[in-house]
Write a structure and sequence with these properties.
Length: 322
Amino acid sequence: ITKLIAGLKPDEKFFSLEFFPPKTQNGMANFRARLARMAALKPLFITITWGAGGSTAKKSLDIASECQSMGLDVCLHLTCTNMDPALIDQALEAASKAGICNILALRGDPPRGEEYWQPASPEFQHAADLVKYIKKKHGNKFCVGVAGYPEGHVDGSDASHQDFHHDLPYLKEKVEAGADFIITQMFYDDNKFLEYNKAVREFSPLLKNITIIPGLMPINTYTSFVRAARLSHASVPPAILDRIQAVPTGNDQQVKDIGVEVVSDIVNDVYTKTNKTVRGFHFYTLNLERSVARILERSGFLTIEEDCAVEEATGSTASTTP
Ligand code: FAD
């Protein structure tokens, strides 16, 4: 990923897309069709999530390998808690065999139904341990990314320590261990991101020029938006909330339309207000294509030729169907 970024023009914008492995065969068939269309939008790379506690290990690896063989540059998420540490080696070997050379190294959340995360072994307590392990075992074979939290990391529902300043020494530890880039938790308040971006860079010379890729989630329905913001502890500026709450119940299309404006405005603001030093944006797609394609178009990521792909992907550039 760092090589791909280095190959871009100095202030050229780029984007990446996150997918999760579908649960059912039907879901997989739909996903494959969407994936092909979204690949046509030319993300710089895509990422595939790793179910908490390795719950999707096989599916994540299968999909990641399939995407890599389609010619996409894949970054595989990998966690190191609540699972047998042997799975870490298996995943890294399978990724390497498939030609995947990017890993997003994470601690992991507790699997569904479990309240607390558990270290897999004394060796793996935090994401930094996984970064160290990958570097020790595989040298520079993998380009390694880590997570960052513009509004502070929160464990479970305990938001009493929610403050990114608390995480900065550990973020530095992850980069000292060899992490090459940071993808952030989703946010809707660009001022929070801008403050975080500045603080990270000022915290240590080691972090001054690190690539920070802001994570953004399109808004699909009012309920899913409120739920995602709550789970990720992302604050929603009153101006955005007011606009969305003013939409008549059930008018999901209007919510989506507002979401496209909100998220593309964040992209444009962050790019401009950081003097184009933050120029990559990561979209939590939830495996859905239309809003992402429209955001990319409104944020000026797509060239005329690629706009045709949006038309194909969405049915229309000004799509009105969900
Ligand atoms: P860490 O960097 O280890 O930090 C976790 C907490 O521990 C922070 O509060 C930090 O301040 C603290 N900490 C770190 N090191 C130390 C230390 N040495 N001593 C004391 N405290 C310390 N989860 C999944 O299960 N699967 C996924 O695919 C997935 N993808 C994600 C993608 C992104 C972009 C993001 C932002 C998160 C993702 N997550 C995923 C969620 C992530 O696993 C959780 O947020 C998890 O709770 C923390 O992971 P981390 O890698 O940030 O952990």
